[in-house]
């Protein structure tokens, strides 16, 4: 990991980006590659999806929609320990996301004048689960549960077909079965996004998949590019970039804990970012040695080592925790751990982070699986304006306005005045039709 000494320096967000650049996805470039794929799926439907699976996944699926019997078989063959872990993850994520349901409520702005906020789930969602460098049953949980908690009536999952079976990974299928999702497609990458956005028919023009209203789920740069192309036709969660972790720690932190957590995120992707911010040179030295050893020893050591040696990963030395807090807030990490004296109080002062993990016993791995929080989080500094995936991604706010005649009459003159000021006289006339005495 590179070392950046910010002691005696104060950097804003732009300056920090110059000294600690993120590895960014070139979505614009990928869009040129993805556009013909999206267009092909739109035009040829199932035939295009089978051709693209053969091209990118090395298999031509017999069934694009996974037979229900295969879902049941995957669930029956699931290792009991994994079943128990998934069941507990589902229980905790359901509990947390049920608490996110927004309160509607009615506001009486005057006698006879009421405005009500009503929250309505979207009709149908498409949830993408990647299957490239690793298999992600946890991502099935993190995408499906919030949609179910929101009350979405129609859910579909897509995941790449495996070369040996032509079906998504058995762990993905089993998790779908545990969650009661029976509409699952053996479709991966950008073509899955297109299939959800446009829907598709089989060779005999029979509809296989209806279009969705919202698409969520992580993926590579081509998935992100496909989401960009269909955004507007459908809603999307985000164009997710490489994963990232920042750890704010003082000399009370266990260097082995910090090193383990940095490596845990570095193993995801060669472009993953792992950043330690600390005022302690002693901790920095200890972590640096342990990170190298842990990365070399882990099963995904090549990926982890590449990520840790990249310019996006660093040990940042600061004057004190106050300065460190300013750095991590400017950085806006997807995952922020605070391992320092007064961690809970420091966490309350952070405004830019996808998720904050407080104290020595709240590692990011906990949030990836069993904390109950969602692990689909804003990356690349987008935590400044974006939130992690939750119930809010699957509901719409509808305002319901109800005024009686006296309530409208009470504001008729003001409406007419504003309508005339904006040179929209018909707006005022629509009020005067109901309140003849309104000012003209």
In short:
This protein is of the alpha/beta class. The protein has 17 helices and 16 strands. α16 packs antiparallel against α17 (425-432).
Description of the molecule:
The chain has 440 residues and is α/β, with parallel strands linked by helices. 44% of the residues lie in helices and 17% in strands. The protein has 17 helices and 16 strands. The chain has helices at residues 13-19, 27-44, 46-56, 68-76, 80-98, 137-150, 170-178, 189-198, 221-230, 255-266, 281-297, 301-309, 321-331, 343-348, 364-369, 405-421, 425-432; strands spanning 2-5, 106-110, 113-121, 124-128, 154-159, 184-186, 200-201, 207-209, 214-216, 235-236, 244-249, 273-278, 314-317, 335-339, 355-358, 395-403. The strands form four sheets. It has a six-stranded parallel beta sheet with strand order 1-13-12-11-14-15, with helices on both faces. It has a five-stranded parallel beta sheet with strand order 6-5-4-9-10, sandwiched between helices. It has a three-stranded antiparallel beta sheet with strand order 2-3-16. Helix 7 links the parallel strand 5 (154-159) and strand 6. The protein is globular, with a radius of gyration of 25 Å. The model has no long low-confidence stretch (mean pLDDT 93).
